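Each lists chain and fold; for instance:
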Amino acid sequence: MINLKRYTSIVMIAICMIFCTHLSYADSPKKGLLEEFTNASCGPCAASNPSFKSYVNNNLDVLIPIVFHPNFPGTDPFNAENPTMHNGRTSYYQVSGVPHYVFLGTVRGHPASIANIGSSIAALRTQMSPITININETRTGSNATVDVEVHSSQALANKKLRICVVEQNVVFSTPPGSNGEKEFPWVVRKMLPDHNGITINLAADETKKFTQNYTLQSGWDKTKIYIVAFIQDDGTKEVYQAAQGMITGKFETIADRFLTSARNNTLTKKITLTNPNKTSLKFDIVVDQTSFLPTGWTATVSPTTATLAANASTELTVTVKTKDNAGFAAIIIKATPNTTSASSPTSADFYILTEDTKYALYSGYNPWITHYINAFAQLTTYNKDLAVIPYATETIQAYPPTNFEVAIFSTSSYFGGNIIINPLSQSMLNTIRSMISLRKNVLIFSDCTGFYTYTAQFNAPYEYKTFFTDFLGVNWLRADQRYTVSNNQISVLRYNVNGVDGDPVGMNIIAPSNANPQNGYNFFSDIFSIPSNSKATACFVYNNKPSEIAGFKFDNGFAKLIYCGFDLGAFDDQGSRAKLLSQAMKWLTTTTSAGGPKITLSNSVLNFDKVQVGSSKEMSFSIKNDGDKDLIISKLYNDPDYDPDGVFEITDGGTTPVTIKPGNMIAVTVKFTPKSAKKYDGSIFITSNAENAKDEVVNLVAEGAPGAGAQISSNKQKLEWTSPKVKPGKSMNKDVVIFNTGSDDLVISEIKFTQNDNNVFSFVDGSDPGTVPKDDSRTITIKFSPNEENKKYEGTISITSNAKNFPTFEIQLVGESDVASSVSEVISENGLFKIKATPNPITLSGKIDFTLGGNTPKNINIQLIDMSGKVISSLYEQTANPGNHQLDINAESLSSGIYFIIANIEGTRVNLPLIINK
């Protein structure tokens, strides 16, 4: 039983897909650095800043905002205070007009349109970063010392650590500039040591501390000053991770965060809150309103306030009372510092699932999940044993889907500034296979997984195709587009889902869809056909056309599955949703008869953990025949495509074909021999005549640990100059970083080319013999200088050293030369504006250069549109000063064809054709 009102607040953020693990130096939740560029004398800035600030304030759980003030278009007190820093950061991004924002270092736009990247911001709530940043600041009077500790589970080479002194909010009694603004949030007052940052190199799982000092100035509000630190790649501008040092609390690691409970039970959980600050601090403690409790469940925390001395801790008691219904609860405890200083709340979470839950409805991948919850609420037979669980790595590990009798998966395309394709994830495919293998039942709704699988531009992994053809036994015909675009407006198209007459799942289903898009819609519908030799049978069609199969089911004698190529969110009425779910659940939960061979694996994953480079570890899994006829394993192999380094080997039990009698089993042994200190993945594929699963996969997870002696590795096994290509007569440099992850110094005796087509590759730096101390690195810079057009070149670098793992270490080189590109340029009729694109045609990315003549700034709007006139993206919408300006254009997600760059300069319109050729 689900309380929809309490569920709504977390449904669209996938409840607890924000799981924070609180473990020291585990991968950390990713935070998004958002940089704004504004000016106190910029009129458009004053117009857009209120909505920008409001949007950011509503997303401060994942965003870390900082604001810089360029010296244009007019007077600005913050720029006057520190012009070198503000102008330096502005030049870093080549910002030529304000207002402007930069998200994660690479995504740019006008602050008034910040909501256009809402899906990217929301996605941060489910992302982890290998980088953890901890900030500690101490003050003595006006003197402050900042310690920034950086840890990374992956190697970092030649990145930059940037440290900002930020004032939370600056308020003037009268406007300091000409645009009327008096309040300025998140102002960067100073960067430490300066805006150029600190070069940082880290080996995998290494931690380094960086200390900087600064003086609090008399014009700053010391109670609102805090530190922001972030890691950035100066080559790509990408910001990998960010952190801020506002006053906060710290919840100690919670043991056993994933609990089970009986129904009608009272459960208590102890949580420790620590004050990590240097002074005594009072905290207000609550069960956060974003917590989710099933209907009738309650949660309380005691005490609700605590005053803690510096570094002192207190124990909190959380009491949860369950009711007689099954359910999943996400309990979030929030502690907020009671202070006037810059501060932020901290939270701790744990989760509870009733022990005897039969059915799992997975959330987090469907914006219309509330329709499923409402529909199940009408089905008392199933709803009392149903839990809504976020589909996330931690939850499926803690509460394996194979524990439930039926698992329901749903995904749907949606609008997030543009149309977002949202298929079943690869993890879901593996979970579904495992459930069928273990005689559990599955119900699937997805409007676009087939479209994603068979559309070349998405480059779906091969497992997606075998999921449909081999596992489900169906063919994908096409996806019908259920929308049109006219005058930049999207309109959804109506269609019907009809049940197949006489089918126990589809009978009497007539479901008009997309008639009420404000309540839910599908942008696509997958259409299938079923081969004559398939076990699948149709249960739904579109628009009463038998040739357009919308959904199908199969029963392999051990388990059942229903797949729908549409999403229930598009149905026009709740009754149709409930009826379909009722008939589907009745069919899925009716006992099936067994017969034939049946494969059961003891493990779906072999986790080797850490193994020292130069040594090996073996692990085994078993294959059992739980059927009543002989199980014949025809293929059992380690796919080299998933193990390019060749670190996994089947040492026993891998001979095929092999016959397993009913009730018997065989053991398969796999050996892991790491070649370098890094993480590895692999897969063992199994093909058999099993009735329940013809194809099975055992995933391999392992990590190489530093070995004895010198150990050589690199951040790249191959350097490529292929995107972009390099024109003949030009050159491009690329770096490769060599790491010594061993216990002794790495002594390099020779670095040379053993292959170098046409001598187009040359060393620029770092190729001399020398020593790399343990836990250190060396950067080698290679230049690619092609001498012919449209040609592929290959090379190999050989490094000879005393490394125990690879005395001769090789790096592959691949370069491609380009042909001369055309540069198209247009000039406005009045001659005051010209614009060009380079290259033109483009493949993946390019530059737009424009020049504004005259002596006065102009409001300029630049858009990219397609042949139909649809706006693809807004490239520039700012007040620009006279002079030269440059923009980046990213065409990675665009199809080949003719587009137009439209520039509007206060009524003057310029049209530049742009060709995208892939």
Q: What stands out?
A: The chain has twelve helices and 65 strands.
